[in-house]
Structures are given as structure tokens and as C-alpha cells.
Design goal:
This is Pentacotripeptide-repeat region of PRORP domain-containing protein. This protein has 576 residues and is mainly α. It contains 34 helices and no strands. The longest helix is centred in the N-terminal third of the chain and has 14 residues. The protein binds one DNA strand of 10 nucleotides through helix 5, helix 7, helix 9, helix 11 and helix 13.
DNA sequence: CTAGGGTTAG
């Protein structure tokens, strides 16, 4: 009687609280057989995941003597779709420990989790199992396998599984298509694309963004025009293609003519402007957004953080918390906020963020961990940074670069160089930021030869040194007293040196008392910087230590005429 | 009763 009533209840939509009440009722009356339905209802009633729900579902499954494959399937599917891959895979393992036979639902969900985390061994073991359980004729499982190997970059195996598929559908085709696109085989991708008889929106969009990513905007645009039905993503793919080519004008033209925009359209444009350093345009665009959500806030906050406007980033974060109480920050938000804090050298936030993250119940992903690592390293806690670094699932360029520069700042040049070697061994390509950290480390320790070697090796990695790299090198050579070498390096620069470059030489000349080069450097500094007080005093020091008092007097006069006021020194660290 | 594919911020 009661069981029948509860069954009815469990078949209608329930809120989280109603589900809990029903759960209590089930426990009191010992109606274990209803728990599968309950699991389904709970997972259906929750839109966004949280640690609480996962704990709740865990508890139910844990207390069932023999959870059925139905409940396992629901739970694993749920976490896999929510992007909580660790949870999903943990449940999958639990299921096998209990001796339950996996369903095709559980298997395909688990495969999705392994594919998204690019976990080769895990995925391959499920592949083996799928033969054992006789799932090799299930199109869902096989397609998930095609996707797995595509994401792993193993196109041979992907193709093999794909060929074995008796009945391929669009999803299967799209999976193999995305594999070819990911491995950069545009020819093969185009061939596959042409073979798809029933192309859907995803087939078209994949192909468009494939061409857009390699900068072949003509082909991308042609396909875009050909496509029968476009959605937001079609437009967004084309727009981000133009942005990647640095063609903001065309990007804007398409953005402007879009019939309607979604959040991704807005953030694509905002981050486009952000990459060009055009914070004003990004900001203007952001103000136009009628419905601001987490995505758009994140894009704008990270725009500020990336363009050295940490205060504005933090300010916007504050506005978001205040005015949009219903928006919960995620790892992305926090990563930007942490990055802003580390730019300000503000340690107060680090511990606050940690407790905040714990309160929210979201786990720290690699991106957030990398941002925290950077913060700790910049604030002098190398050990803590190291701990975070080793805990990363995947160490990418950003992580290595942050760690290298962290070691450099804290006087661990040896470790910085070791990390760099490790990184190259791991086939991770260093970028400009990596070399900034590395050269700074060498500079810090006065390792001229090593620094010079790394600087020269940049071109071997396909990198063109930026003006800042030259500035570090000039500083490094200069401090070591190799003033002439530093001067030659400046003269060899392919771009116009800024005041930082000449300033570094001037400083070195002041340390090593070189009047001749000092004058040249100072002259350039005066020309480049309106507020040149510091440079005047440096040159004055050079003159006075050379005993050239006439020149000192001449300079003082010049200084007064320009009505320059000596600035008081200030720390780059935020004052508390 | 549920599953597999693309687009997106540091």
C-alpha cells in the first residue's frame, strides 16, 4: 500500500527536499526496492551538481545491499555528464567491486569520463571489458570508444573501431571526424565530412571550426554560407576563427549581424578584444550585455586579470558577488581572481580563497591550482607552490612556466632549469612566458652564459623574443659588467626598444660607472619617458662617481627646468 | 526509464 503510494510519488517531479522526505520514508519502512527510483529522481531533480548531492547519492548506493545496474547507470551517467569525471569513474570501480555487471549505459558514460580526462589506460581496460560483456555491437559503446581514441590522438585504433561498427550514425561519424580534426588532418576530415549522408549541425560546425582554427577562413566561410541551418555555435566558430587570425574587424562584422547572441558569442568577442589588449572595447561590450551570467562575468574578469588590471578584476568580482547573489563563482572565476591577487602580490586572499573553495564544495581543478601555485610562488611560499604543482593531473605550459618563474624569483635557479629540462623532455612546448621566467631566474642568479644560451635557444622553439626578453637580457649582461655586449644587443633588436630596455642599460652603467654608454642610454630614456626623474638621478650618479661635477650641475639645471619632482620610492607589493 | 559527437574563459 505504502510502497505503491511512494512509487507514484517517485514517478512525478520532486524537489530536492521532497526527495529527502521520501528517502526518510523509505528508510523507516525498509523499502529498499524503491531506492533505485529514488536515485533516479534525485538525479533528475538536480540541475547543477554539488558535493552534497554526490555525497547523498553515494550514501544511498552504499547502503543498498546490492544496487542494481539501473541505479549505477543513472549515477555514473549523471556525474559523467556533469563533468565530475572522478566521481563517475569512482562509482564505476565501486560497481565492479560489488560484482555488478555493467550496463551499456554505465560503460559508455565511463568511457566518456576517460575520454574527457584523456586517461589512456583506463579507457583501454574498458575497451577490453566491452568485448568480454559482448558490447561490441552496441553503437553507443563503440562510438564512445571511437571518441576515446580520437581524443587520445590514436587515430589508427579509432579508425579500426569505427570500421568495425556495423551501423554508423551521425554521432559515430562526428566522432571520427573530430578525431581527424584534432590531429590536424584536414584532408582526411574533409573526406569523412563528404561521406556523411545525414550531416547535422555538429558535423557542419566541427568542420567550420576545424578550418577556422588553422586560419583557413575562406573555406570556413564558404561552409558557413552553405550550411542549411545555423545555430549560435556556427556563428561563434566563424567569429572565433577571425579572432584567431587577429581580424577583429571581420569578427565584429559577423557578431554584429548575428540574429541573436548567446553567452559564448559575447565571451568570444570579449576574449578576442582581451587578447589584443583592447580592454576598453571589451569593457564596452560587456556593459551592453543585458543578461550577464557566470560565463560573461568570467570573461570580463579574466580580461582585466590578463591585461594587468588586477584591481578592476577584483572590483568586478566584488560587483558580481554583490549584485548577482544568485551567481556562484566557479573555478574559472576564482582562477582569474587568484591571478589578479598574485599580480598585486596580495597574500591575504590566498588563504581566504582556499577556505572559500572549501565552502563552495567545488574541487580545485588544474587551472585554479595553477593560479594558486603562481600566487604562492610569487609570495615566497615555494614549498606550497611545489606541492600544488606535483598534485596537478596534467602539467601544461602555464603550470611549468609559473613554477619556473616561481623558482627563479625565490632564488632556486637550479630547480628552474631542471623544470625547464623536464618540460622539454615531456614534449611540452615552452612559450614566451616560460622564457621570461627562465631568463628572470638566470638574471636573478647572475648566470650570464646560461641565460644567453636560453635566449639564443628561443628560435629553436619557434619563438621570437619579445621586447621584455631583450630587457631581461640587457639587464643580465649589464649587471655582469658586459655593457658593450648589452649595447650591441639593443642595437640588434628588430623592434624599437622601450624605456625599460634603455633603463636597464643605464642602471648597469651606473653600477659599473660607464659614462659613455650611460649618456647614450639616458638620452634614449629621456626621449621615451616623460616622467624621467629616476633616469636623471641615475645619470647624475654616473657623473658624480666619475668626478664630472660640471656635468652633474648641467644636469641638475636641466632637471629643474623640466620641473621634475623626485618621486618617493614605492613597492610593487600592495600596501596593507 | 539513462548513454556517444562540437563551440568556451586562466
Amino acid at each position: 500500500m505504502l510502497a505503491a503510494k511512494l512509487t507514484t510519488i517517485l514517478n512525478i517531479h520532486l524537489t530536492a527536499n521532497q526527495a529527502k522526505q521520501t528517502h526518510a520514508c523509505i528508510i523507516i519502512n525498509g523499502l529498499n526496492s524503491l531506492k533505485p527510483l529514488l536515485v533516479r529522481q534525485i538525479l533528475l531533480s538536480t540541475r547543477n551538481s554539488s558535493r552534497r548531492i554526490s555525497q547523498y547519492v553515494h550514501n544511498i548506493l552504499y547502503h543498498l545491499p546490492h544496487p542494481d545496474s539501473f541505479s549505477w547507470g543513472w549515477a555514473i551517467r549523471y556525474f559523467s555528464q556533469q563533468g565530475q569525471f572522478k566521481e563517475a569513474l569512482y562509482l564505476y570501480v565501486q560497481m565492479q567491486r560489488q560484482g555488478s555487471c555493467p550496463s551499456t549505459f554505465a560503460v559508455s558514460s565511463a568511457l566518456r569520463a576517460y575520454a574527457r580526462t584523456t586517461h589512456k589506460m583506463g579507457g583501454m581496460s574498458i575497451h577490453a571489458e566491452s568485448y568480454k560483456y559482448g558490447f561490441s555491437n552496441c553503437v553507443y559503446v563503440q562510438t564512445a570508444l571511437v571518441d576515446l581514441y580520437s581524443k587520445l590522438g590514436d587515430m589508427n585504433t579509432a579508425q579500426k573501431v569505427f570500421d568495425e561498427l556495423a551501423e554508423k550514425n551521425v554521432v559515430s561519424w562526428n566522432s571520427i571526424l573530430s578525431g581527424h580534426l584534432k590531429s590536424g588532418n584536414l584532408m582526411e576530415a574533409q573526406r569523412v565530412f563528404d561521406q556523411i549522408s545525414k550531416k547535422d549541425v555538429i558535423s557542419w560546425n566541427s568542420m567550420i571550426s576545424g578550418y577556422a582554427k588553422i586560419g583557413d577562413m575562406d573555406r570556413a566561410c564558404a561552409l558557413f554560407q552553405q550550411m542549411p541551418e545555423k545555430n549560435y555555435s556556427s556563428w561563434n566558430a566563424l567569429i572565433s576563427g577571425y579572432i584567431n587570425c587577429g581580424d577583429m574587424k571581420s569578427a565584429w562584422r559577423f557578431f554584429d549581424t548575428m540574429p541573436a547572441r548567446n553567452s559564448v558569442s559575447w565571451i568570444t568577442m570579449i576574449t578576442g578584444y582581451s587578447k589584443c589588449g583592447d580592454v576598453d572595447s571589451a569593457s564596452k561590450l560587456f556593459d551592453q550585455i543585458a543578461k550577464k551570467d557566470l560565463l560573461t562575468f568570467n570573461a570580463m574578469i579574466s580580461c582585466f586579470a590578463q591585461n594587468s588590471q588586477p584591481r578592476k578584476a577584483l572590483q568586478l568580482f566584488g560587483e558580481m558577488l554583490k549584485a548577482y547573489a544568485n551567481i556562484q563563482p566557479d573555478q574559472m572565476t576564482l582562477a582569474s581572481v587568484v591571478s589578479a591577487c598574485s599580480q598585486l602580490g596580495d597574500m591575504r586572499f590566498a588563504s581566504w580563497i582556499e577556505s572559500y573553495v572549501n565552502d563552495l564544495g567545488t574541487d580545485i581543478d588544474d587551472q585554479l591550482a595553477t593560479a594558486l601555485l603562481d600566487l604562492y610562488a610569487k609570495c615566497g611560499s615555494v614549498d606550497k607552490a611545489c606541492e600544488l604543482f606535483h598534485g596537478l593531473n596534467k602539467k601544461d605550459v602555464v603550470a611549468y612556466s609559473a613554477m619556473i618563474s616561481g623558482c627563479g624569483i625565490n632564488g632556486k635557479v637550479g630547480d628552474a632549469i631542471k623544470l625547464f629540462d623536464m618540460m622539454v623532455d615531456a614534449q611540452i612546448h615552452p612559450n614566451l612566458a616560460t622564457f621570461t621566467g627562465l631568463l628572470t631566474a638566470c638574471n636573478h642568479a647572475g648566470l650570464v652564459e646560461e641565460g644567453y644560451r636560453f635566449f639564443s635557444s628561443m628560435k629553436d622553439h619557434g619563438l621570437v623574443p619579445s621586447i621584455d626578453h631583450y630587457a631581461i637580457m640587457v639587464d643580465l649582461l649589464g649587471r655582469a659588467g658586459r655593457l658593450q655586449d648589452a649595447y650591441e644587443l639593443i642595437k640588434s633588436m628588430p623592434m624599437q626598444p622601450h624605456s625599460g630596455v634603455w633603463g636597464a642599460l643605464l642602471l648597469a652603467c651606473s653600477v659599473h660607472n660607464n659614462v659613455e654608454l650611460g649618456e647614450i642610454a639616458a638620452e634614449h630614456c629621456f626621449a621615451l619617458e616623460t616622467n624621467a626623474t629616476a633616469y636623471y638621478s641615475l645619470l647624475a650618479n654616473i657623473y658624480s662617481s666619475a668626478g664630472r661635477w660640471d656635468d652633474v650641475r648641467r644636469l641638475r639645471k636641466l632637471w629643474k627646468e623640466n620641473k621634475l619632482v623626485k618621486l618617493s620610492g614605492c613597492s610593487w607589493t600592495e600596501s596593507t
